[in-house]
């Protein structure tokens, strides 16, 4: 488990790390809204990354709060990510 402030600092330090000429892509697949109510949404999805020709995926579960202050009206409340084994299969965007 990471401390909130340290984790946020690490994420912010990575923002913009890759530019238009870099071999890096990121996308989501298999998005599944598991529960939605007036204040919260629970969603599961796969996040895929391709860097230097190699693909890796991770399964994620996120709890989002419906809140007009957030981007697209949502604020992240919790996320859990687990890397998928490399043999999970190749994907395409």
H/E series, N to C?
A: HEEEE
Shape: globular
Number of separate strands: 4
Round the mean pLDDT to the nearest integer and report it: 88
Approximately what portion of the residues adopt beta-strand conformation? over 45%
* Annotation field: number of helices: 1
What order do the strands of the largest sheet run in, or round the barrel if closed? 1-2-3-4
User: How much helix is in the residues?
Assistant: 10-25%
Low-pLDDT sequence parts? none
Radius of gyration, in angstroms, nearest whole number: 15 Å
The largest β sheet comes out as: 4 strands, antiparallel
Measure the end-to-end span.
Answer: 31 Å
Structural category: mainly beta
Structure description:
The protein is mainly beta and 93 residues long. The protein has one helix and four strands; from the N terminus they run αββββ. Strands 1-2-3-4 form a four-stranded antiparallel beta sheet, with no helix packed on it. β1 (24-36) and β2 (40-51) form a beta hairpin. The chain is globular, with a radius of gyration of 15 Å. It starts with a helix and ends in a 10-residue tail after the last strand.
